[in-house]
Amino acid sequence: MSKKKKSNLANNNKGGSTPPKRNWVMVTIYTVAILVLGSMLLRQDSKASSNKIRWDKLEPILVKHHYSKIVVVNQEFCEVYIKPSIIRKDSAYKDLVVKNLMNQPIPNAGFYRYEFVTFENFEKDLARVEEKTGERIDLTPEKRTNAWREILVLFGPIFIIIIFFVIMNRITQRQMGGGSGGIFSVGKSTAKMYDGKTPTNVTFKDVAGLEGAKDEVMEVVDFLKNPKRYTNLGGKIPKGVLLVGPPGTGKTLLAKAVAGEANVPFFSMSGSDFVEMFVGVGASRVRDLFEEAKKKSPCIIFIDEIDAVGRARGRAGLSNANDERENTLNQLLTEMDGFSSGTNIIVLAATNRAEILDPALLRAGRFDRQIHVELPSLEERKAIFDVHLRKLKLNKDNTSEEYVDRDFLAKQTPGFSGADIANVCNEAALCAARKDHKSIGRQDFLDAVDRIVGGLEKRGKVLTDVEKRTVAFHESGHASVSWLLEGADPLVKVTIVPRGQALGAAWYLPDERQLTTYEQMFDKMTSLMAGRAAEEIFFGKVGTGALSDIERATKMAQSMVVYYGMSPELGNVSFYDSTGQADMTFTKPFSEKTAEIIDKEVRRMVEEAYARAKQIISDHRSQMEQLAGQLFDKEVLFREDLERIYGPRVGEQVAEAVAEQIPAEDTPALESDTNLPNID
User: Fold this and answer.
1) What's the rounded mean pLDDT across residues 595-607?
2) Choice among 305, 475, 512, 601 that is catalytic
3) Model-level pTM greater than 0.70?
4) Is 475 among the catalytic positions?
5) % of residues, the chain, pLDDT over 70
6) Which of 153, 334, 572, 584 is the most interior residue, by most CB within 10 Å?
7) CA atoms within 13 A on the CB side of 263
8) Portion of the chain with pLDDT greater than 90, in percent
């Protein structure tokens, strides 16, 4: 077999199962039967219509007595048979000559068909002819039935009903995924199965970062490949592995890699596939899924977005509500660790809402392991960029300013997930294509990051000079205060070019910390309130442009007071509910008096941050005016522009002073792999 044919076969098998083939034999039989039946009916009708005659032609035949007999059929029409001798002699009847295969005329084969309106009118016409000729005209009555027409009348409605049900069955099958049995197999599992013969084209090499998660998942794969290595020591196969993490971190990609590496049957299904409009379908599909898995044991079942079916029971707040979902969950709990335990089936599931799952689903014996798939660190982002940059045509000239360095890109994307990084790489390629570049450069990646974070640049949105100057001072306030406060995020770029719904924007490069202190959070709140503070100081009035800033600052203050216990009035008290059950209740976890204290503390923190921002801007008024003027003229300023006006940042000055006191050989190396996003 050629390589091309092999690849075609692989593509046809891709997806876990081959599409069902049409039964062309049955289709052909049905088509031929319909055509034969129709042709017979049409043949009889055409034959009858070819011998039709009107009364003005029939009357001379009756007067001359050229007929041999007249047959009245069902009192609907009559057949007037002409004498064979007359047909041979008289050329007027040549249309009745019927020849056989030997081209010889057939006797007694010619007749005319006369269709009358009513039999009584026909009798009256015959009576007039009898008076004219003086001879009696004999009629031969006959009851005749059309077999094909009778069959069609008898079985036609039944045939139409069968066709209707077949069509509805096919439509239901396509819409509900009922399998080859259609509506009768709606309770069957719709999971796609992958085995060693079905390539997935994804392995653990394609999963960058996630080193800890990969190690745990690879151990499960190794258990299926070499079970004796663990069973000889008395170990048991884990029942389930739950992948938990934010969206886009690679949970489904990790499951695809398991399917490509395990070399055992792999069933893939979404949590929403279990729940349908029919009662009992979800539980039936769970049973069928595990029955199929037992036949292929050892195997892996992957349920993506399991929160669609595994939500905690009793959360609906109403009696007898959502019974179908609960029945499906009960069946899943029974199959995972019921009386039929002991089968080598591992359930691999993924969700980003683990807090709403039922506790019975998370207990030991069902999902024994929870693997947290977090946002990638700096080193992991480098590895992810390595995977996605392989397919791109990059600028590889390391002497050029457009040289693409993965270390630089990883530092420019803090807090990005794996899906976000893939989107950045794709957007960079599109940006380079729009500019007709032959390769993708550094600026293309920076433009891609700006577009993803801030939105599309809207040069066509026209601002008046007053609005533009207000936006310039607003953004300069953010940039200046964040530059002057050590705990705030360092600025990368500030612009007054409208992007998305914002009239201006500032880009920061946050430090990836494991812990955040009160001082650092308060510095960030101060920088958020600096935009409105600048408007009040320089224009004496405030506008609506600080809506997003006030919202973020207020939510940050609320989290500091309610969650992190950073309020001296409340003390070390946290009202955070990690189980998520508080979302389903209508009561607050604190009293009305405590709510008043919370409101006062939140307002106090925000107002203190606002007053602090006003004081900082007032102390650096001249530098602020200089920065806002440059921003008004250039529309875009970078880190270097702020450094020329304000000098190095406070934190950088301290770091440089410490570095000067420490000998070069004793300078510690920075551990970039410990950098994590801020907890706020």
Assistant:
1) 94
2) 475
3) no
4) yes
5) 76
6) 334
7) 6
8) 16
